[in-house]
């Protein structure tokens, strides 16, 4: 679920950090800029992997800080298509089952990708798998906090850069994963453990 | 400080336009959960030593993501793995001709049942016989360490079930 991404960026080190080792100061600035942030079409950045190349540092007139072009690699959360992951159910809604990994929250299993037949229990706000056996139907509830195994079927990157004062500040997620549990072995871990 | 150059105005404009961040390769390499786990633990140790200097508020994002990711990974099989386990596992997987992605999933999940193997190996019905699937489960559970607490619990449960049957 994690990949290494090669990036290049110019890092600004303010004068009060000149006493520090350049590598450490740059690592800190890169982590400050990227950690826990989503880069469009790349994924959720976790932490710096390493610095591969440091170019010369420049000081520009009017700014006492140094600017250094850095080639580095970053650890990014970006599951591949069809990857199997395990998470916890955050909550259920009409849109489907919302799953979280703790460090990443925006995973949605839409109703059509649940084990079928499934129904939404309005009273308890929970999706239910109406599991049929010869003895009759068992209702298997998808409760909050339950561990769930799912397959990543799609990803959605949204550019959430600020546009202007007129647009409604909607809580759009910059990176959402669509998942499915419609195969044997997928769904709550408790459904498949002997 | 290495190589600091003071530029005259003429060159300033050109260099500043190269300031935007660039992604050179969005998929340079895949990392196993084990590698990320090790990296985060090392980083945590390094940062503990640097706490004496200062704890700037800008570090909060890194703290949050490190804490949450470590919390998640510590509950997965990678937290019990060692570099030797991973090497032995990859060697044992050679004859099965699995793709990198398939081996990675087996390494990260340590599947114990056939149904899990079938989820992670594409077209498993055509590529693996039942015996081969059993062989994979054997190798995976033998080479990769499991959760010590869970493994201890299992024989105990079997005993309890036997008593219940009586």
UniProtKB/TrEMBL annotation, chain A:
Keywords assigned: Antiviral defense, DNA-directed RNA polymerase, Immunity, Innate immunity, Nucleus, Transcription
One GO process term, biological-process aspect: defense response to virus
Name of the featured protein: DNA-directed RNA polymerase subunit
Single annotated GO MF: DNA binding
RNA polymerase III subunit Rpc25 domain span: 83-192
Organism of this sequence: Astyanax mexicanus
A Pfam family this chain is assigned to: RNA_pol_Rbc25
Family: Belongs to the eukaryotic RPB7/RPC8 RNA polymerase subunit family.
SUPFAM superfamilies xrefs: N-terminal, heterodimerisation domain of RBP7 (RpoE), Nucleic acid-binding proteins
Presence of keyword Ribosomal protein: no
Domain of life the protein comes from: Eukaryota
RNA polymerase Rpb7-like N-terminal domain ranges (all copies): 9-64
InterPro entries named in the record: NA-bd_OB-fold, RNA_pol_III_Rbc25, RNA_pol_Rpb7-like_N_sf, RNAP_E/RPC8, Rpb7-like, Rpb7-like_N
Subcellular location: Nucleus
This protein's GO CC annotations: RNA polymerase III complex
